[in-house]
From TrEMBL:
Its cofactor is Mn(2+). Mn(2+) binds at residues 104, 106, 139, 165, 359. Signal peptide: none annotated. SUPFAM superfamilies: Bacterial exopeptidase dimerisation domain (SSF55031), Zn-dependent exopeptidases (SSF53187). The Mn(2+) ion enhances activity. GO terms for biological process: diaminopimelate biosynthetic process. GO terms for molecular function: metal ion binding; N-acetyldiaminopimelate deacetylase activity. Residues 188-283 form the Peptidase M20 dimerisation domain. Transmembrane segments: none annotated. Keywords: Hydrolase, Manganese, Metal-binding. This is Hippurate hydrolase. NCBIfam families: amidohydrolases.
Length: 388
């Protein structure tokens, strides 16, 4: 089962869908045009059921195979949302909306899954049911989580679920995957440090909040370097450091810190949160300052089940012959993790070649990846539910 010939024929059509979505990017849950286009195409393909409105603008299509002796149901997922970035590709199909851009290739994911849905609805060479899932709000908002909470898995009786993301830096047509953690848990924090403001020439009469917050920023880096086992992965990044005052002679009363914590294992995630609170509170207390900490759990670890990873590798191998199974996990977050928490499955990367990185204003999805991606999606259905 190499790249399916049908996808070579469908490539111009799928490319047209992709470029149309690229030209009309929408953000988060607010995807009226994109979801209407997806639902309309799924109906044109002859899907047995098309459900709109899950997580607001999510779309789900159901395609029944020629037979259904085993009663199996496999879910395939793509994300549809764009990013708040000003596009700098200069493409003739570049974003028509300044400040919104498909800079993560979700236009490509949506188009590739649409291509697979068209093929599967035409051929139906499988025993069971394929469910194609198009979710909003992957780039913040947790559209995947909302669909799971709204009963996606139960409503459609899904047993396994598979997802894909394009990956710049990996050769076009090469797949990359690993069993276990694939993407990180992404938590975020906000800390307000309160000292005692005053005249900058009389530091002894105040509590220098700027200095206390600086000590906290430095000490937080010791969680990764001194607390967590060096063989485990953790990232602590303080990204915002804002004092109340912009003056050169005022010790501010408050400093705001914001940032993110990334981990790959549940135990490490819990441990780092505990260390984070202890370090922030302890450093502040040592200086006579106080803190308010907001620590929010975000997307969980994207965890590939070992058996399902093997299935994904086998199909990827048959599609392209090029699969890297020793790829390192990424410390980015991905809300397909909620679907993988709900059902066993796997998440795979597909090479986008030597392009600008994801979320870069010059990034573009490579349409030559479409036959590989669509073949993999469709191949997962045919391989996991072979025709009776
Ligand atoms: Ni993405």
């Amino acid at each position: 089962m190499p790249v399916k010939n049908r996808f070579a024929e469908l490539l111009p059509e799928i490319t047209e869908w992709r470029r149309d979505i690229h030209e009309n990017p929408e953000l988060l849950f607010d995807l009226p045009r994109t979801s209407a286009k997806v639902a309309g195409l799924l109906r044109d393909f002859g899907c047995d059921e098309v459900v709109e409105g899950m997580a607001g603008t999510g779309v789900v299509g159901v395609i029944r195979g020629k037979t259904d002796t085993a009663g199996r149901v496999i879910g395939l997922r793509a994300d549809m949302d764009a990013l708040p970035i000003i596009e700098a590709t200069g493409l003739d199909y570049a974003s028509k909306t300044p400040g919104k851009m498909h800079a993560c290739g979700h236009d490509g994911h949506t188009a590739m899954l649409l291509g697979a849905a068209k093929y599967l609805a035409e051929t139906r060479q499988f025993d069971g049911t394929a469910v194609v899932i198009f979710q909003p709000a992957e780039e913040g908002g947790g559209g995947g989580r909302v669909m799971v909470e709204e009963g996606l898995m139960e409503r459609f009786g899904i047993h396994e679920v598979y997802g894909m993301h394009n990956s710049p830096g990996i050769p076009l047509g090469t797949f990359a995957i690993r069993p276990g953690p694939m993407m990180a848990a992404a938590d975020q924090f906000e800390v307000v440090v309160t000292g005692k403001g005053g005249h900058a020439a009389k530091p002894h009469e105040g509590i220098d909040t700027t200095l206390v917050a600086s000590h906290i920023v430095v000490a937080l880096q010791q969680i990764a370097s001194r607390n967590v086992d060096p063989l485990k992965q953790v990232v602590v990044s303080v990204c915002t450091f804002r004092t109340e005052s912009e003056a050169h002679n005022v010790i501010p009363q408050k400093v705001l810190l914001r940032g993110t914590v990334r981990t790959l294992e549940a135990e490490v995630r819990d441990y780092v949160e505990g260390r984070f609170r202890a370090v922030v509170e302890g450093i502040a207390a040592a200086h006579g300052a106080t803190t308010e900490i907001k620590y929010e759990r975000g997307y969980p670890v994207t965890l590939n089940a070992p058996d399902n990873t093997d299935y994904a590798v086998a199909v990827a191998h048959s599609v392209s012959g090029s699969v890297d199974t020793s790829v390192a996990p990424l410390m980015g977050g991905e809300d397909f993790s909620y679907m993988l928490n709900a059902r066993p499955g796997a998440y795979i990367f597909l090479g986008n070649g030597d392009t600008a990185s994801l979320h870069h204003p010059a990034y573009n999805f490579d349409d030559n990846a479409i036959p590989f991606g669509s073949s993999w999606y469709a191949g997962m259905i045919e391989a996991r539910m072979p025709a009776a």
